[in-house]
User: Fold this.
Amino acid sequence: MTRVAGIDCGTNSIRLLIAESTETGELAEVDRRMQIVRLGQGVDSTGQLAPEALERTFAATREYAALCRENGVTAMRFVATSATRDARNRDDFVDGVRDILGIEPEVVDGAQEAALSFAGATSGIAAPGPYLVVDLGGGSTELVLGSKDGVAKAFSMDIGSVRLTERHIRADPPTPAECSAASADIDRALDEAAGTVPIDQARTLVGVAGTITTITAHALRLPEYRRERIHAAMISVEQLTAACADLIAMDREQRSALPYLHPGRVDVIAAGALIWQRLLERVSAASGIDVAVTSEHDILDGIAMSLV
Assistant:
């Protein structure tokens, strides 16, 4: 069996999946890691990756390189998304990752990101298609409509938990005016996306990535973050939107006390919850979908799957 490694470097986190390819061509997980490095710190306003953000990301990449060596990885793919593709100095990032890993990192566009997210998110999902996969990241959010045969339509929106926090959120908790300004941004992005992705055609809504899995944990009131409880959880839109509203209304101290909320998401989860709340409401109104599926499989799994 071959051991492969996928690395997903987003706006807020960098994640590693080491897996073995089985005789049937499927992947068996060996190790999965995540670190919050906030690579996209300030990118929305400055257009550049900050030196301290680059160093945090390089430090995590060195740790992942060591893990890959220890686990006998023979094929690796490093994919960077929203923050990197928006940065004028992304060559500094690419050069640094290449020096550490010895491979060429890929800065993918929104369409490529959407396809990888869709492949990972729908692997193992038994619900009927067409699927609408929502990948809610730190810098961008992808809407992907498709079936088991692949992607039909996709659109990448420049809204994410980090980007919207930096644009609009100053108070703790966010003020009604801040929430209104952020929601206007979200609605504009959704209006634009609707011109490309016919969300009314979806039969199953699948949400992926850390913001959505955290909101799912909150809706389930888990005593700690449990991937096995979160993955494939089917929760009503009403329950999820209520969980979003609850997180938006909390202050930092209350959010920090939640046992399933990673410390690196404490300051951006309110903006992320606003995005998921508006998306749930729009999709439900357009398609009649009243339940969303949360998947722990996402772009990271799609990256690893592409290697076998």
